[in-house]
Amino acid sequence: MDKCSVTPKIVVTLSSTNNDWKETIERLSENMSYIDMMEYRADLCGELAVEDYIADLKMLKEQFTLPLIFTYRSKGQGGKGEKEPHAYYELVKEIVAANIIDIIDIELLLYEDLMDELIEAARMHHVQVLISHHEFDHTPSSKDLIALYNRMQGLGADFSKVAVMPADVRDVLKLLLAVYETKQNCDNHIVGIAMGEQGKLSRIAGGSFGSSLTYGHIGEEAAPGQLHVKQLKSLLEIY
Ligand SMILES: O=C1C[C@@](O)(C(=O)O)C[C@@H](O)[C@@H]1O
């Protein structure tokens, strides 16, 4: 086994419509043995008050003791979040201070001074930092992807995540190579996701290249190409 090879943790992406969690909770309970972590996608739950997001997080954490990631994905990054950078910053800061989550997803595109403050707040509250970036228009070269990962590392990310929308399998290879090369020189978590049909390979085999997390669903895909966690688990066993 290559020294970079890891067994990726399976993260389930969660959200509710109209604050109705009943079905999601049932599905979560049924699929617990395939899941290592939960991701709460705040932007997919609607523009709620901070207290309402916190109530959801508490409910999830009380019922399922798995590590919990908070993500508010902005529109430009493939989510539904409408918040401007300062409102995004305020929300994330309050969520971190609530001492309920384990990992905070922060978008790389955030202004650098706000990013620094958020990372400091996360450290203060013992929350791990996951810096993320989504590229939908094109897949950068492996060299540029490595530079992106290095930038995230330089900012102090515990997890550095890049997701791309590949046009062909060559783009998937570019991403996997970038994950592999970055992982050669760092001990922190690197995550590489190629979305869409062509990218499914990265969700299953990414661990062999050093990718630490793979995201799946328990009902409907939250991003193009996501697999059901049960299927993910059985495919990951091959590796
Ligand atoms: O960044 C990611 C990865 C993702 O976009 C995916 O492709 O599975 C799903 C998102 O919920 C998560 O925040």
TrEMBL record:
The keyword Lyase applies. The keyword Amino-acid biosynthesis applies. It catalyses: 3-dehydroquinate = 3-dehydroshikimate + H2O. Pfam families: DHquinase_I (PF01487). Pathway: Metabolic intermediate biosynthesis; chorismate biosynthesis; chorismate from D-erythrose 4-phosphate and phosphoenolpyruvate: step 3/7. One of its GO terms (molecular function) is 3-dehydroquinate dehydratase activity. It comes from the Bacteria. 3-dehydroquinate binds at E39, Y40, R41, R73, R203, Q226. Keywords: Amino-acid biosynthesis, Aromatic amino acid biosynthesis, Lyase, Schiff base. CDD domains: DHQase_I. Its EC number is 4.2.1.10. The active site is at H134 (proton donor/acceptor), K161 (schiff-base intermediate with substrate). Belongs to the type-I 3-dehydroquinase family. Involved in the third step of the chorismate pathway, which leads to the biosynthesis of aromatic amino acids. Catalyzes the cis-dehydration of 3-dehydroquinate (DHQ) and introduces the first double bond of the aromatic ring to yield 3-dehydroshikimate. Homodimer. This is 3-dehydroquinate dehydratase. It comes from Macrococcus equipercicus. The gene is aroD.
